[in-house]
Design goal:
alpha+beta; Double Stranded RNA Binding Domain; hpI Integrase, Chain A; 3 domains; 4-stranded antiparallel beta sheet; 3-stranded antiparallel beta sheet; 7 strands
Length: 404
């Protein structure tokens, strides 16, 4: 006779265990301690076997019957339900080990072991563990492009177009690592190229008129703020480097005998060490500022005793005090000015790009260019420094110099 919910609820414990049958192999075992456990007995290959379906009331009567019916279907297909359960458990454990979160964590450990910058790791972890959290527990082989797109669109929908595009790349790196470690079949983010809105990039303000740039150089020369801040602005313009690279410049990085400033990988945007040829004017400036940093690590220390280094905001505020608005020039704008003027004069564009430390995607070509163009870079940096002197001296009535 089939069980009822009333009968189950009112089944009282006895001195020893006893069963209440529901039919077709399903029964409820009532134990002396009052627990009630579902059991299913069946025969396979001439042997009697038993499966447990959990305890009542966690597993209700209807659920137990569903499990029994599903198990009988497995038997009808010629398979042993016990073996299938073991295989399903193994598959679930394997899927857990191969979840998106697990593969992402392995990738982060690999990047850390390879020397990735802490800042890069922190940003990557934030994207993969926070922004991509809806994918965390999913088996990496089961994730579809539609699922990823939904995650990306949520980020994009909050107005973070840049983060959404970066997230697509970060998720793709997890899948590519999964493919390389035989845990994924392909990278589904490939199908999502072009699915996201373009970024609203704000170009950094820069002066691209030679007369106006010459005036800027004269204004910096006349600036009466911190001497190290004034020198840092001049040095940044001379070397075409980024503000952060100059602000963190260390005395130990200057190789005087070779006229080279060697920037370590952790301070470079491309995460590779970079050598900057120093022009005659750059070396003279360093000799002037060198006594100011005596006994200190940084070449351009802050004039504020509470700070060790200059802040980028200090550079920006210096430009503002000179009368330049945020739409006219930025700390990064010196690089744009240099690139514009040198390109206009017909100098080799590839040499200019290497001087600016712009990343070359092809690794072989990158190494080739850096080696091939060293002498040209040395010459171009001196040409740029000389041109800065020329622009600094010229008046509005002077025409542009002819191309070199």
């Amino acid at each position: 006779m089939a069980l009822t919910l009333f009968a189950i609820q009112n089944a009282k414990p006895k001195g020893k265990s006893y069963k209440l049958s529901d039919g077709d192999g399903l029964s409820l075992l009532v134990q002396p301690n009052g627990s009630k456990l579902w059991r299913f007995r069946y025969r396979f290959g001439g042997k009697e076997n038993m499966l447990t379906f959990g305890a009542f009331p966690e597993v209700m009567l209807s659920e137990a019957r569903d499990k029994r019916n599903e198990t009988r279907r497995v038997l009808a297909s010629g398979k042993d339900p016990s073996e299938k359960r073991k295989l399903d458990k193994l598959a679930a454990e394997t899927a857990k080990r191969n979840s998106f979160a697990a593969v992402a964590e392995d990738l982060l450990k690999k990047l850390e072991a390879e020397g990735a910058a802490p800042r890069t790791l922190k940003k990557k972890r934030w994207m993969l563990q926070d922004l991509a959290s809806p994918l965390a527990d999913r088996p990496i082989t089961a994730i579809s492009p539609a699922e990823i797109l939904l995650v990306l669109k949520r980020v994009e929908g909050r107005g973070h177009r840049h983060s959404a595009r970066r997230l697509r790349g970060a998720i793709g790196s997890v899948f590519r690592y999964g493919v390389a470690t035989l845990r994924a079949n392909s990278d589904p983010t490939w199908a999502l190229r072009g699915a996201l809105l373009k970024e609203n990039r704000k170009h950094r303000a820069a002066i691209t008129d030679e007369l106006a740039f010459g005036q800027l150089l004269r204004d910096i020369d006349e600036y009466d703020g911190w001497p190290t801040l004034k020198a840092a602005l001049r040095f940044m313009a001379l070397t075409m480097t980024r503000p952060g690279e100059v602000r963190f410049m260390r005395r130990s990085e200057v190789i005087w005998q070779k006229a080279v400033w060697r920037i370590p990988a952790e301070r470079m945007k491309m995460r590779r060490p970079f050598d900057v040829p120093l022009s005659r004017q750059a070396l003279e400036l360093l000799r002037e500022v060198w006594p100011m940093s005596e006994g200190r690590e940084l070449v351009f220390p802050s004039g504020d005793a509470r700070r060790k280094r200059l802040s980028e905001n200090a550079m920006i505020q210096a430009l503002r005090r000179m009368g330049y608005g945020k739409e006219e020039v930025s700390a990064h704008g010196f690089r744009t000015s240099a690139s514009t003027f040198l390109n206009e004069r017909g100098h080799n564009g590839e040499v200019i790009e290497v001087c600016l430390a712009h990343e070359e995607q092809d690794e072989v070509r990158r190494a080739y260019n850096r080696a091939k163009y060293w002498n040209q870079r040395v010459g171009l940096m001196q040409t740029w420094a000389d041109l800065m002197d020329e622009l600094r001296r010229q008046s509005p009535s002077v025409a542009k110099l002819s191309a070199s």
